Amino acid sequence: MERTNILRSTFSFLSDLSEHNERDWFNENKHIYLEAHKHVIEFADSLLDALKQHDEISTISGKKSLMRIYRDVRFSKDKSPYKARFAGSFVRVKPQLRGGYFFSFKPGETIIGGGFYNPDPKDLKLIRDHLAQDDSPLRKVINSASFKKHFGELEGDRVKTAPKGFDKEHPSIDLLKYKSMYTFRSFSDAEVHDPAFLESALDTFLAIRPFFDVMTDFLTTDLNGISLLDE
């Protein structure tokens, strides 16, 4: 069954979980959780099928895309056992394609987007080397009307001054500072529950593709444009 939105009942469960984030309450209401989880899987399957018409994705199912609702509280001051949201990701086929699509459904805080969160140090160095040589491909994408319309601007953690090995006066220093690069679009609860939400989510994923294409080029070729995939 194709599901094109996230149900209000799913958000009602998440709101209740946020107020009663404890194991006894969760166990008493686990049947509601399982029903909500089932509906989110149905939506994720529909979104994955739609995305595969436009991109090569290695994620095999909506169920496999979802993150666990259970929190790892071993090293956290917050001992709440559950995450009051449903989230997941779709991974592109590596090493030919780079970038990952991300979604998180939560009352008042739903986001769709993706990018590169804490990339491998070797990959981050290669990205910075490409940017230092020529940042125009990435600037063209993030300054485009489509990118600004969907996401506003590029996000991510940055170093305070300059990364090691790069001049703080470099003309591309604003981009070189990034340690992670990602971007998201927020959706209201009304948009999430609307039957057109699947189309809006897919449109958002497709709007991030040009960013992924530039980053894929950076990560699969050396500074002379020679493929690194044959090494």
Structural write-up:
The chain has 231 residues and is an alpha+beta fold. It contains 10 helices and 4 strands. The chain has a 4-stranded antiparallel β-sheet with strand order 1-2-3-4. Helix 3 (30-51) crosses helix 10 (197-220) and helix 6 packs antiparallel against helix 10. The protein starts with 7 loop residues before the first helix and ends in an 11-residue tail after the last helix. The mean pLDDT is 96.
- Structural class, by secondary structure, is alpha+beta
Terminal CA distance reads: 44 Å
Question: How are the strands ordered across the major sheet?
Answer: 1-2-3-4
Number of helices: 10
Beta-strand residue fraction: 5-15%
Rounded mean pLDDT is 96
Largest sheet: 4 strands, antiparallel
What is the tally of beta strands? 4
The coarse overall form would be globular
C-alpha-based Rg, rounded: 20 Å
Low-confidence stretches: none
Q: What are the secondary-structure elements, in order, as H or E?
A: HHHHEEEHHHHEHH
Into which percent range does the helicity of residues fall? 40-55%
